[in-house]
Amino acid sequence: MIILIPAYEPDLQLPALIRSIRQAEPWLPIVVVDDGSGPEYRGVFDAVRDLGCHVISYGRNRGKGFALKSGLGFIADNLPGHDVVCADSDGQHRTADILRVADSLREDRAGQCWSTMVLGSRKFTGDVPARSRFGNTATKMLFTLATGERIPDTQTGLRGYPAAMIPWLRAVRGDRYEYELNLLLEARNAGYAIRSVDIATVYLDHNSGSHFRPLADSVRIYAPLLKFLASSFTAFLVDTVLFVLLTLLADSLLLAVLGARAVSSAVNFMVNRRIVFDHGRDRPAGTTGIRYF
What we know:
Structural class: alpha/beta
Distance between the termini: 34 Å
Largest sheet: 7 strands, mixed
Shape: elongated
Low-confidence stretches: none
Strand order of the largest sheet: 3-2-1-4-6-5-7
Number of helices: 10
């Protein structure tokens, strides 16, 4: 088990979190990614390094998704075979909750389950900033409309991934906050399941330590959701129109259902391949099509 923490311009919450994890599990490897924080934050990362963490740094800020994939790449190259728990650096995730997600991964491994992503799901009770409450509710509703799946907390940064999932995690597109939502959108088509465990809802100083940019980052997050939703709605319209036409022309309910579903699912596959998940164009259509159907 490895803890992965992306950090941009962190305060003393980061070394405090790592000391707390060390007290609970002294030998647990921890990888911290300095996402281009700059020289003025060198002291924080030196303190983290002194606590026995692996620290990865690069010159300029590249975004949370890039930081996570950089950390996963380091783990794949230097610490292969370990499950990974990703946590935020701003004090929102308690050590007990991080270890709860880690224990869930250990249980899955003991049961020989290597294809389930574990989400630390917040209940959003108590003193939660209005922006955060609204953002999670809106994203959750759009996600359910687009995918049919109900996930209690689509924006949680506390997540557990089995080691076998790491190559796929590194391949999913997105370098900033949209990356974690893309993982949820693409998990089912990639053959992965998602489950949630309850964690505490913690916001320090009304989330003042967050680097989320309301306009720019919201556009990045909602764009793939809206594309996914538009793709599903287009397939629904094609399915409905063809069903009515085939019913009138063939006078056969079975033929109408099978014909409409075959065409609409093919349309949905091609739209997803070309527009929604545009990196799918680089993969053989036959292989991805079989997995899709």
